[in-house]
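In response to reviewer comment 3 from the previous cycle, which asked for concrete evidence that the modeling workflow produces usable outputs, we include below a single protein chain processed end to end. The sequence was submitted unchanged, and the resulting structure tokens are shown without manual editing.
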Amino acid sequence: MEAQRLHTVDDLMAWPGDEPVELIDGAIVQRPMTRFEHGLVQTGLLGQAFPLVRGQGPGGWWIVPEISVRYSDSHCPSHDLAGWRKERLPQRPAGVMSVLPDWVCEILSPGHERKDTLTHFLRLQRAGVPFYWIIDPKEPALIAHALDAGRYRTVFTAEGPDETSLTVRVPPFEEIALDLGLLFGDSQ
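The workflow returned the following structure tokens.
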């Protein structure tokens, strides 16, 4: 039996067609179709983090949606949101990122839950990404993990409609108060 060849970042960059794809453990996989709820969470989080992006908060951040990050030659996922502290990456980056993010956020999409809750979780933990958030817009739920001695530990959870009325401070963004209602599109 012949071993299957792992795809590389070069294969990903040369991939034909217009459909959004990413490289997960050597396999080129199609990204899920973005739903309104997904975009609403991205917009809600980006909007509230804007003071950090503008550098008005302590240190400042580069926070971008749908960003490809190269962790190895055979693993280059596109994260829903990822951020880099400007103190660590002072110049504006360009292209596919090869610098490890300080924070990654994945928003669950139907049919791709395993990738976000298991594959990315384990890969980012192994790579040493300091913070990993998982957001489920349907529940609604937010689970924030922080790296502690090489393993993720849960540092914040909010689940269900009763908690969408909360304003919270979640690592690594303790400088800003996040309105969970606005994050999940419940605030008018």
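Residues 36-53 form the longest helix (18 residues). We consider this sufficient to address the reviewer's concern, and the full set will be provided in the supplementary archive.
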